[in-house]
Write a structure and sequence with these properties.
A hairpin with a 4-residue loop joins strand 5 and strand 6. The mean pLDDT is 94. Strands 1, 2, 3, 4, 5, 6, 7, 8 and 9 form a nine-stranded antiparallel beta sheet that branches. The chain has 208 residues and is of the alpha+beta class. 27% of the residues lie in helices and 35% in strands.
């Protein structure tokens, strides 16, 4: 198709509805971890950092009327500390197989303890023990030290449920802006940005 014949394809819909459609498509076609998302945080004085996390829940009514996107981490980690000190963040999904990406910006809240408990209980026992043993982001003398820490934790919890560490919890990014990007021929990409206004959303196309 000639570039001049390309039609606008990103729907002017509620961004959560559009996200669900793209996320479902990624679940079908992306070969590994379609829920993987880059999380960008920063210190209160503006030093940024980014890393990959896994999206574990999302929805327009999640934890309140503004909805959100939930992931879990150790609050002792760099990202955890930065989220507590500066509760603003951004997410970036990039699905290479679809040639699409979604950027999400917003504010951060912690999930309720009951929600964190329920998700932690759903994890494999080995993952639970690893979370309990890990002092995430702290200096580690050797990998053998970490394995020894896991062995000690395992010995303390041979039977019964593994308790969720209080420093391991979930964060919800409540979006203020969501941008959808679709690859098009000749780098004439299509971009639509949704911005929250009151209880609703406005949207506009952006030049690529």
């Amino acid at each position: 198709m000639d570039a001049s014949q390309q039609r606008e394809e990103i729907a002017q819909d509620n961004p959560f509805t559009l996200f669900d459609q793209w996320f479902a498509l990624a679940a079908e076609r992306e070969p590994a971890d379609p829920e993987a998302v880059a999380l960008a945080t920063s210190t209160p004085d503006g030093f940024p950092s980014a890393r990959m996390v896994l999206l574990k829940n999302h929805g327009p009514d999640l934890l309140g009327p503004d909805g959100g996107f939930v992931f879990y981490t150790n609050t002792h980690s760099r990202k955890g500390g930065e989220l507590l000190a500066n509760p603003r963040a951004a997410l970036l999904f990039h699905w290479k197989s679809l040639r699409r990406q979604i950027r999400i910006e917003g504010t951060i809240t912690q999930v309720p303890d009951a929600m964190a408990d329920a998700y932690f209980a759903s994890r494999s026992r080995d993952s639970q023990l690893g979370a309990l043993a890990s002092d995430q982001s702290a200096p580690l003398p050797s990998y053998a030290t970490f394995l020894a820490d896991i062995a000690k934790v395992t010995a303390r919890h041979l039977i019964g449920p593994v308790p969720r560490p209080k420093h391991w919890t979930g964060f919800c990014l409540v979006p203020t802006a969501i941008e959808f990007w679709m690859d098009r021929a000749f780098r004439l990409h299509e971009r639509r940005r949704f911005t929250r206004e009151g209880s609703g959303w406005t949207s506009t196309l952006l030049y690529p």
